[in-house]
Backbone:
């Protein structure tokens, strides 16, 4: 078959819907194969990029959650500190008033030992009770220590002496200086003598 005859046969086959050897449906041209490979490579690159971006999103989301939790903890801690500051704001003032209470205690003990001071005793006791009421209204409580078991969270031992009774061993037998609590927190420990 000559070249001209082959071209004529190819044209006739095309008109009749027949394919030439080069254009058969089962065979692919090199350019189509290359474009499909390139397309697959692009899809693979896109998938890798998507996975990389998902990883970054997860990392940033985790970081965001941690920062949010840290901020929430900081906020709660700050609120608690503010509440404590407000609650114990008057502690210094009340602490400086404690020696005055001690003086009142000593004055009343002295008045009780002397005679013929009836009006002075009554006046002093009235002032003392009003002052103690004022302190109690401001959440100041006296630590009850006499004949209680020695507790290092409430008491400060000054000395030890032989216990007058067996039942007072390891207990407070004398209070040298009263202790006080403000809103349940010790602001001055009771100075005590312990029986042994």
Residues:
């Amino acid at each position: 078959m000559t070249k001209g005859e082959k071209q004529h046969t190819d044209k006739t086959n095309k008109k009749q819907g027949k394919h030439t050897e080069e254009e058969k449906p089962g065979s692919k041209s090199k350019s189509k194969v290359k474009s499909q490979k390139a397309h697959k490579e692009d899809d693979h690159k896109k998938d890798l990029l998507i996975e990389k971006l998902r990883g970054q999103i997860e990392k940033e989301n985790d970081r965001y959650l941690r920062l949010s939790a840290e901020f929430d903890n900081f906020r709660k801690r700050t609120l608690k500190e503010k509440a404590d500051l407000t609650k114990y704001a008057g502690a210094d003032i009340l602490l400086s008033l404690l020696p005055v209470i001690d003086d009142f205690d000593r004055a009343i003990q002295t008045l009780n030992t002397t005679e013929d001071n009836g009006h002075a005793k009554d006046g002093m006791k009235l002032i003392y009770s009003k002052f103690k009421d004022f302190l109690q209204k401001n959440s100041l409580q006296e630590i009850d220590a006499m004949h209680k078991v020695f507790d290092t969270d409430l008491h400060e031992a000054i000395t030890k002496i032989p216990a007058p009774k067996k039942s007072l061993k390891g207990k407070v037998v004398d209070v040298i200086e009263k202790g006080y609590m403000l809103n349940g927190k010790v602001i001055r420990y009771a100075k005590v003598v312990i029986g042994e």
Observations:
- The chain has four helices and six strands.
- The mean pLDDT is 82.
- Helices lie at 3-15, 30-87, 91-113, 118-137.
- The chain has two domains: 41-87, 91-195.
